[in-house]
Amino acid sequence: MYVSHGKEVFYLNWKVVLGILTCNILFMSSSYTMLIPFLPMYLTNELGVGPESVNLWSGIVFSASFLVSAIMAPIWGRLADTKGKRIMAMRASFLLAISYFLGGVVTSPEQLTLMRLFQGFASGLWPMDLAIMTLYAPPQKLGVCLGIMQGVLTAGGVVGPLLGGVLAEVFGMRVSFFLAAGALFLNFLIFVFFIKEPPTPALVAPAEKPASEQSVSLWRIPLLRNMMLCGTLVQMVILILQPVLTTYIAHLAGPLPNIVFVAGLVFSLGGIAGAMAAPFWGSFGQRHGYFRSMCYGMIGAGCCMLLQGIPHSLYLFALMQFAGGLFFCAIHPAINAVLASNTPPDYKGRIFGMLFAAQQVGSMAGPILGGIIATWLGMPFVFGFAGIILILLSLTIWHTYPIHQS
Fold first, then answer.
1. For 185, which of 17, 97, 203, 209 could close a Cys bridge (C-beta 3.0–4.6 Å)?
2. Which residues, other chains included, contact 14 with Cβ-Cβ below 8 Å and sequence gap of 6+?
3. Rounded-to-5 percentages of helix, strand, coil across the chain
């Protein structure tokens, strides 16, 4: 129970909220990943794009939403802090459902690009899930909750492509878009009927500062600013492999008849490992400190990426892909927990909106940088570059912050 303006307001138990949000995140993540990997096939088979231009259109369609979502995420975050995080989650779910529906009825690559731009405008569901959970979760359970949520997000990234491949093969990709629209609309209904606005302590905001100045002041806090930079670089490293990973796997595998299936299976190993290990890292960070968890994850993932860049067999590459997934899943929950632990309750939406925007910048920069390095230096250098970034980032954080701090 929470008392606000003389009224008694009842809130859900944090365990119930965690259970509901994990379902929400699974629907959101699997809906996205069951479509995005197959966009080139959708452009070719459904929208009539020729093989000579499918790569160009794939890049345009894939990246179209990132720029818009990077711009809008801080705005949605600020509105969440002033208007309510639940209403912003409802907005994102409903508009994303519309965007997926539109994706299933488009008839040209130009229309699909417009749909992705609208999807970028609609995005922001994941930051709101984080903001809601960090307000419901007891401080002593924050790391565990964020670890579970990250694990479910990663699991959705594994389930989505498998489900999307089956649906595309049996029914065609338009059915996948409509199914994704239904899943996001179900998320919308869950927020309408089951989730309550999280409890926020009655804090009096400084009346002498306008909201814009209060938002900018978050960037002036070194800890928060550095965590934003970490989020950008880690997201860039994750997506820097996107243009080269399938090609590199094909190079290691040789002339296999089912190379697409093999590449998808190897690619999913990191997600499977991450879904398994994320709750452990959340608990580890809760007990031993989030900075320690973050550093261990970065240096472990960085070493695995360095080893992946050394020419060897496909089996060893797959093993390092799995091992890297065990470490990568430690990073984002630790960043989220540090931000949540060092941000006032009435700034949660704003800070996670800003983090999401920073990650979108990394999502835009990663594939471009990976393509450039692979073209000019070769594919193994992409893995080496990404691994070195993570190791240097780990050493910087270890040196900058007391490792016992959380």
1. 97
2. 136, 137, 138, 141, 145
3. 80, 0, 20
Q: Give the residue numbers spanning the domain of 75.
A: 1-198
One domain for residues 21 and 132: yes
CA distance 45 to 47: 6
The pTM of this model reads: 0.81
* Residues in CB range of 28: below 8 A, 6 or more apart: 96, 125, 126, 129, 156, 183, 184, 187
How many domains are contained in the chain?
Answer: 2
Judgement on whether residues 128 and 8 belong to the same structural domain of the protein: yes
Could you give the C-alpha distances from 163 to 32, 46, 85, 103, 157, in angstroms and in order? 11, 19, 30, 17, 10
The pair of three-digit structure tokens given for residue 105, joined into one six-digit string = 């009825």
Judge whether 360 lies within some domain: yes
DSSP class of residue 310 equals S
Across 164-201, b (16+ Cβ under 10 Å) vs e yields bbebbeeeebbebbbbbbebbbebbebbeeebebbebe
Of the three residues 171, 198, 225, the one that is the final residue of a domain is 198
Q: How far apart are CA 343 and CA 149, in angstroms?
A: 19
Distance of CA 330 to the CA centre of its chain: 13
- pLDDT per residue as tens, the chain (406 positions): 343 444 444 457 889 999 999 999 999 999 988 887 778 778 888 898 887 787 778 778 877 888 899 899 999 999 999 999 999 999 999 999 999 999 999 999 999 999 999 999 999 999 999 999 999 999 889 989 999 999 999 888 888 877 877 787 788 889 989 999 999 999 999 999 998 888 765 443 433 444 444 444 666 788 888 999 999 999 999 888 766 676 777 778 777 666 656 766 787 788 889 889 988 998 999 999 999 999 999 999 999 999 988 867 888 888 998 999 999 999 999 999 999 988 888 888 889 999 999 988 988 888 888 878 887 888 888 899 999 999 999 999 999 987 655 4
